[in-house]
Amino acid sequence: MREEPVTQCLLALAALSNPQWGIRPASIDIANALTIGIEELDFVRSHLLAKILYRVRDGVPTLEPFDQIKPEMQERITHLIGERYEGLRTWIEGQQVDPETELDHFLSRLFGEVLSQAGYGFHNDLNAGVVTANLIESVYKFRRVLRDELLSHSLSPGGEYIRMVQDGLVASQYIRSWDLVQQDSVLLTPAYTFLMANRSVGFQFWLDVGGGGWWERLYQPLTHPYVLSRRANSGL
Fold this sequence. Notes:
Number of strands: 2
Strand order of the largest sheet: 1-2
Helix content: 40-55%
Largest sheet: 2 strands, antiparallel
Structural class: mainly alpha
Distance between the termini: 55 Å
Shape: elongated
Strand content: under 5%
């Protein structure tokens, strides 16, 4: 799921709209988000928009108004694209003033109020709607399971979800809860994804894949390789 351009677009716009989370998207991420989010906008012009109008001031990412671009550049980008850009920018600006507290609520509003409207990238795009619905459900399950724990450490569930997607800790493949799953099978997944799935399983094996024990040799009587070697002399 995190490799989907639609997902990357939504999360980049979410980070941009919620500066209180402390996530500052890269210029290339904003350019990609504009390409996906605005209809008929190619990457060349979205790159120009991001390069000229995307700024991070005092740690806060912002999009500047389209009219700050020189007239000849406005003509190159076209006023139609500029109008659509302004529609998205002013919506984001309003969100920055009065942030939505929950990421899944924010994504639902972003999709319904802007991106699914005529002139924007998700309009009449069934796949974009499916990916957005999957993402919203994934965020909701994440919040439901971990909200109290994160808030006890003064962490925002929305911001932490985006960070975990960026770090690859949330699975890239999304499986809906109503999809059929073979009972006689093995599920390999990150811990957070497993917890959010709320599935009953026969056995669980939790592995710390980043632990040093996978490659460090333990010099103990029952684990020393020379003690356990078949070539060891009898009686040692």
